[in-house]
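Next comes the chain:
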Amino acid sequence: MWKLSALLLVASASAVVLPAHREAPELTGQALIDYVNSAQKLWTAGHQVIPKEKITKKLMDVKYLVPHKDEDIVATEVADAIPDSFDARDKWSNCVSINNIRDQSDCGSCWAFAAAEAISDRTCIASNGAVNTLLSSQDLLSCCVGVLSCGNGCEGGYPIQAWKWWVKHGLVTGGSYESQFGCKPYSIAPCGQTVNGVTWPKCPEDTEPTPKCVEACTSNNTYPTGYLQDKHFGATAYGVGKKVEQIQTEILAHGPVEVAFTVYEDFYQYKTGVYVHTAGKSLGGHAVKILGWGVDNGTPYWLVANSWNVNWGEKGYFRIIRGLNECGIEHSAVAGLPDLDLYCKNDIAKPVLITDQLQRTERVANADEQRFYFIAPGGKIKLNTNDERVQFGFSLYWQQYTDAQPVQLNVSLSDIQPTVLERNGMKPALVKADTKVSATILFPVYNYLIQNLRTLIFFDGDSWNSTSLGTGLQLLQGNTQFVSSGSYMTVLPLESSFGQIVFQDYEHTKDIASFQGLKCTLYSRCEDLKLDAGGGPAAFQLYTQDIFSVANILKGIEGTGKLDVYIGGVTVNKTNLISSYSTESKNLPQEFLGTFKTLILTNGTASILMSEFSKSFEETVSLPRKGFIASMEYGSRSTSQDSHSVVTSGIIAKFSISIRDADLSGYATLDMNGYKNNTLVFARSQAPHFTSFSTTMWKLVTLLFLTLLSTVTPTDFLQQRLQTELLINQVNSAQQLWTAGHQDAPKERIMKYLMKAEHVKPHREEDVAQVDVADAIPDHYDVRDHFSQCISVNNIRDQSHCGSCWAVAAAEAISDRTCIASNGVVNTLLSAEDILTCCIGEYYCGDGCEGGYPIQAWKYWVKNGLVTGGSYESQFGCKPYSIAPCGQTVNGVTWPKCPNSDADTPKCVDHCTSNSSYPIPYEKDKHYGATAYAVSRKVDQIQSEILKNGPVEVGFTVYADFYQYKSGVYVHVAGPELGGHAVKLLGWGVDNGTPYWLAANSWNTNWGENGYFRILRGVNECGIESQVVAGIPDLERHN
């Protein structure tokens, strides 16, 4: 009931004072303030002391406003009694952080600020005030960086990843720039305003650069505690449910939460009251802390702390309408719980000393003996020795300079006899046949995510002590089968995997077993499994988190009594704990992308890419001399030094690791010592990973993945090319549905093709028309074959460096439908330029070259009509496209390089603009629509609509791998979300059992399959089936 009353309140205020302003989204400045204050009475807008330009520097890109993954959301039991009003400042007034308003200055660090604020509150609350301090936003901002990690520092970040970073790496103390409180206070000064009598200098023109990560205290004041000893850790990090009562319950139980939402221009002008978006365009994303709720004159609200200093809003706070997911604020709440035990151990744990070859020692306070074990598929191994010092010899071997030479790593440990203490839960599956067992890969239609099959090891026998046949990835890449010598085969899942394995009786050629799936993850144990010949057709299927490798990782070998290690693999003389390469192995990996990734560059700048499950980290490290080797851990920084031939030092969480005196033609050694109470404490792996040799606090991998010759000068282009190579390799190795490759057009151009995420959204119910499903829908259909007489059907356009896809796709489909409905009588190309430039006002389409709403383009056609117009090159019709292609060669014509900025939206003119003499006046050239509507997301309804009336326009989300598409049936495999896009859907089919949609892109004919692409059908891939629009032409109204 209160939702209805709130909406009525807004609506009635608007109706009484001022009718809806057609151009409200475009209002700025005083006009916007006047409109907001006249249109509603919930809140008041006014001029701000902070300059408007500064606000946009505080915001994030909308790409950081992403829904939670299902696995991140923790179900909250709703409290029995939720009060009408609640304010954390009253409940926990003893906590110094609760009332603290910070100032992020001109840096888009809101994601780090809101996290540090809420984490500080929750640490105080959980400890009953025993840990009452301010935790550092600087520590998060500067050190949690990288794609799919926290983000990009001052350009924005993912709130949930900030909380996960707190769990893994901890946060030191740190307050505001003015206070210099704690170990790591904020390093960016306020600007452009006067606060508490202090006038700060004018803000700089550009956004502040992200501060560098340093693992030391940086306060101007003397701080008594060391950086590592000052860490405060989290126990858990999670997303909160979207329901209001779930968010309220979470705050009641544990304290404030962090939320992210879309900021519009009117929010900047907020002074007081309960905010609801009223006017102005979207400016970006923002993250804040919710600390309570209440009701104001019948309007429910959230109480929120901003990070724009106390001059803004209600002394730094604001209220926003509750229960309507206003600006998306209720769909992105994140939270976590502190680990007070881990924090308390800092004061009492005995130190561990890590000494490098130069006898430099680092004291590590937080060492827990039980954490330091090797964990392998065979069990947990504790390394015992009577010696206080144990030497580890790491040998590096480099064959020659080529583009992708592996480094062979062998580690020998003396005076250590490993013993198996316990099984670690990764249990083998036993497969039995009448004669011999064969294993092969099965490719079902929808099983397109075949990844990480390296985590399956096949053994020739009835136990995992048997001879290793190889891994699932070898089975996949070799396009072969494994055959046992007897009637048993054992399969050991180390983690969990995508992919479907079919077991057959090799000689009787019949399928074995009735087991349909096995699920085991890092946090749950795999169940025992026995398969025998008594069942019918079956598959052995495993599911994984997002880990990926493109090399044959394992090769079974026998140990010799010492512990031999290669990228985390260990073998001993009794048991294959992890099968790994020996030093004599010829089959070395060429590339990895998994728990850990290191790139080595022989001169200049190296781009470091690492991933851990669904997280990854990207960093650039400057290496001043030829031959330097970079070694880093996910979520931390590395400092490069110049000494002797090769020096890198990775200061990683708790341990200091160095590689010294390496000659690329010889060997490098690393001596490390770690002990506690005369017992070695050295390594623990969180799970059996083949690509890491790790502890919970550090990871070391010294593998060569790519070598660039010293004659190459590193540039930004080189770094981007390096990332592109990794993405292409990842896509092509992970699946066989489609092929990725290099594109002629520069990668930067794709960002200019795309729309904002806000333009790709579900339809309103009133816009969706129900389509009568056709009696017979063919398996394959292509509009080009059925209406080949229509010149528009085969036409591929080029939107150039303008996000006009919404207009181009609409013009293409409307042209087709007009020709089809008129039986070819009206056979022309209608103008994308007319929609792009003139769709404003009542049927406001959006933001021109920054994106638009497809459904509005079709409604504009119904109301205002469209004139004819073809491509820039053709100058066809009344209003051809006015933005020239750029950055590529098409049909023998080389177009100039694309400019650095997006194209400006051309101005709307009501006359023909073709360079050619077009005989028909603008008003007489109009072609109109009769209806415009959205189509249901059901596959058969979309197909029926195309069969009956012609192509439709669809919107979908674009990821980085889509740009690299060359051919095949696309499905998103890897890479971050880039934005929204609209295209024309003109058919469907089936390719080797995989159903697809056929779509026409607007990136010219050099891209994809001569300008077209195919995308998986039936699973709403990237949202393509939930945003379909169409319409019917009005042939009688044609002038």
Summary: The mean pLDDT is 67. The chain has 19 helices and 52 strands. The domain at 24-337 is CATH 3.90.70.10 (Cathepsin B; Chain A). Residues 716-734 form the longest helix (19 residues).
